[in-house]
Design a protein that fits this description.
The protein is an alpha/beta fold. The chain is built from three helices and eight strands.
Length: 165
C-alpha cells in the first residue's frame, strides 16, 4: 500500500509575516503600558528618605497622584509642567473637577456614593509625592482641600533608606 500518490517534491513554506506583525504589536503595547505607568511621576520631586518606607498593601480602587515640587506647588498635569499653588483657588477648582470625575467613575462601576455632611465619600486614593524640602504645613493644606471635596484615602510616598527617588 502506497500513501502519497507519486513522487511530488513540493515544499510547503510557512508564512511568518502575520506572526511577526503580532509580536511587534505586543512589544509596542507593553512599551506604551510601561510609559503610561511612569507618566504620573514627576522626576524633579526628590522624595524624603524614611527607614520604614515600604509599598502600601491597601487595595486601591482608583489612584490620583499629586506631585508637590520643592517650592510647594502641585503638578496636576500628567507628565506636564502645570504647577498650581496649593493655597490658591485654582487648585481647589481642580480638585472639585477631580471629585466630579471620581463620582462619575464610582457610578459607572456601580459603587454606591455615600454622602456625609453633603460631601461624597470617594473611593479614590490620593497619593502624595512631596519633595523632601516641602514644609509639612503645605501638605496638610493640600490634604484639607482634598478632604473638603470628599477624598478621605491618602498615601504618602517616601524613599526607603539608601534608595534615591
Amino acid at each position: 500500500m502506497s500513501h502519497g500518490g507519486g513522487g511530488s517534491t513540493e515544499v510547503v513554506e510557512v508564512n511568518l509575516i502575520p506572526m511577526i506583525d503580532i509580536v511587534i504589536q505586543l512589544i509596542t503595547f507593553f512599551l506604551m503600558l510601561v510609559n503610561f505607568d511612569k507618566s504620573n511621576i514627576d522626576e524633579r520631586v526628590r522624595l524624603p528618605i524614611a527607614d520604614l518606607a515600604k509599598p502600601s498593601e491597601m487595595q486601591v480602587d482608583e489612584l490620583l497622584i499629586l506631585n508637590i515640587s520643592s517650592d510647594g506647588r502641585v503638578n496636576v498635569g500628567i507628565g506636564g509642567d502645570t504647577l498650581i499653588d496649593i493655597g490658591g483657588d485654582t487648585f481647589r477648582q481642580h480638585m472639585v473637577k477631580e471629585a466630579r470625575e471620581a463620582v462619575k467613575s464610582m457610578k459607572l462601576f456601580g459603587k454606591p456614593v455615600k454622602y456625609v455632611a453633603d460631601r461624597p465619600q470617594l473611593w479614590t486614593t490620593i497619593m502624595i509625592r512631596a519633595d523632601k524640602e516641602v514644609e509639612y504645613g503645605k501638605i496638610q493644606r493640600l490634604m484639607k482641600v482634598c478632604q473638603e471635596q470628599g477624598f478621605y484615602k491618602f498615601a504618602l510616598r517616601a524613599s526607603p533608606e539608601g534608595k534615591r527617588m
